[in-house]
Amino acid sequence: MTRRNGVLENKIRAYVEANIGAFHQKRLDSLRQLQLNLILKRKNPYLFKAKHIIAAPDLVKLILDAHLSSQEEKLFGEFLENLAIYICGQIYGGTKSIRPSIDLEFRKEGIYYIVSIKSGPNWGNADQIRKMRENFEEATAELKKTKEKPKVVGVNGCCYGQDSHPDKGDYYKYCGQDFWEFISGDKELYTRIIEPLGFKAKEKNEEFQAEYAKIITNFTVEFANEFCDDREINWARLVAFNSARSEPARRVKEKKSKYITQRS
């Protein structure tokens, strides 16, 4: 290992140890703030019925785990984004961008890079990718108007995953090893950053699991009281709670119907 890589690794370790606690705290806070009714509104009851879920505790756990998985992906994605910006700042003087949909800007080997950072490669649909392209074009046009008129290259950087065809024509997509090497110049960084991420993970996860157990118990009791009859899930009631027309909409429809009757 070169001295440069050793110094960088020490800095990364110090950064992670100073900031990973915020991720764990946000994760715990998010769990404590959950409300069963809000989660039930966001999940597909038809899917769970199709999977033949018959026990309330099983349904509650599945719904909660699905919600937490998406929440954790988002929270950890934000942490990795900030870590990538920090690393690039140490090596190439990269800075956090203030431009729409662009997270990182830095100069490397005579090229000015504008980078949109995502967790993984499968992050968006066609419209979202089109919007990213438009933001790259607008940022490039702005930078071309400056005195330096740099050569600008747009990059979609993904913290994990693979993409065997990085050249997308009007921008590049670097994933996993390619992304971490791109922002650091170190082709092995992608494997070495995994170890510091485990800092205090065991104790933090134990705290999370203790809170998780309480939430599961409370939500199961609440769900049983609201959506079970004789210990069986009342699927019609659950679907109605999730998907029935809201009261305001019904009132508007009733008002409109009354108005039409009066005119007749």
Reading the helices and strands in chain order gives HHHHEEEHEEHHHEEHH
Kindly report how far apart the N and C termini lie.
86 Å
In angstroms, what is the radius of gyration? 25 Å
Q: Main β-sheet, in a few words?
A: 5 strands, mixed
Low-confidence stretches: none
Structural class: alpha/beta
Shape descriptor:
elongated
- Beta-strand portion reads 5-15%
Q: How many domains comprise the coordinates?
A: 1
Q: What value does the average pLDDT take? A: 88
How many strands in all?
7
Specify the helix fraction band: 55-70%
The strand order across the widest sheet is: 1-2-3-4-5
Number of helices: 10
What does this structure look like?
It is a single chain. The protein is α/β, with parallel strands linked by helices. The protein has one domain. Helices cover about 60% and strands about 10% of the residues. The chain has helices at about 5-30, 35-40, 45-50, 55-90, 125-145, 175-185, 190, 200-225, 235-245, 245-264, and strands spanning about 95, 105-110, 110-120, 150-160, 170-175, 230, 230-235. The strands form two sheets. The protein has a five-stranded mixed β-sheet with strand order 1-2-3-4-5. A two-stranded antiparallel ribbon has the order 6-7. The longest helix is centred in the first third of the chain and has 37 residues, at about 55-90. The radius of gyration is 25 Å and the shape is elongated. The protein starts with a helix and ends with a helix.
